[in-house]
Amino acid sequence: MTRFHACDEGSMQEGSSDSVGRILADSWQTLPQLANEIVKEPKLRGFVLAHINGTLDTAQIQKIQHYATTACPKTDELLCKQIAGAAHEALN
């Protein structure tokens, strides 16, 4: 995470956003694995949240927001609230 932070600019940043958006929208069931990785590498949380942004397709953001508010594992409620908030911001 830290070593490659400078690479997260321009088209690479958009690619990262696309990957984050695709994973959250199409593989929501892997959220507990993401939460476990965030425990190991706390900066990952900020990376994921920052990449839920206006570069994503509106339908994809809406899907992420829907999952975060209706299909959140009990153990990951804080992360889901943060994801839903980032999605809300991206839609506005």
Report what the structure shows.
The protein has one domain (19-91). It is 68% helix and 0% strand. The protein has five helices and no strands. It has helices at 10-26, 31-40, 43-50, 58-70, 77-91. The protein starts with 9 loop residues before the first helix and ends with a helix. The mean pLDDT is 89.
Q: Could you say which overall geometry the principal axes of the C-alpha atoms support?
A: globular
Structural class: mainly alpha
The H-and-E topology, N to C, reads as HHHHH
Proportion of beta-strand residues: under 5%
Number of strands: 0
Count of domains: 1
Percentage of residues in helical conformation: 55-70%
**Most strands sheet:** none
Mean pLDDT: 89
How many alpha or pi helices?
Answer: 5
Our measurement of the CA-to-CA distance between the termini, rounded to an integer number of angstroms, reads 28 Å
Radius of gyration from CA coordinates:
12 Å
Query: Low-confidence parts lasting 5 or more residues at pLDDT below 50?
Result: none
Brief account:
With 92 residues, this protein is mainly alpha-helical.
Descriptive labels:
single chain; mainly alpha; 92 residues
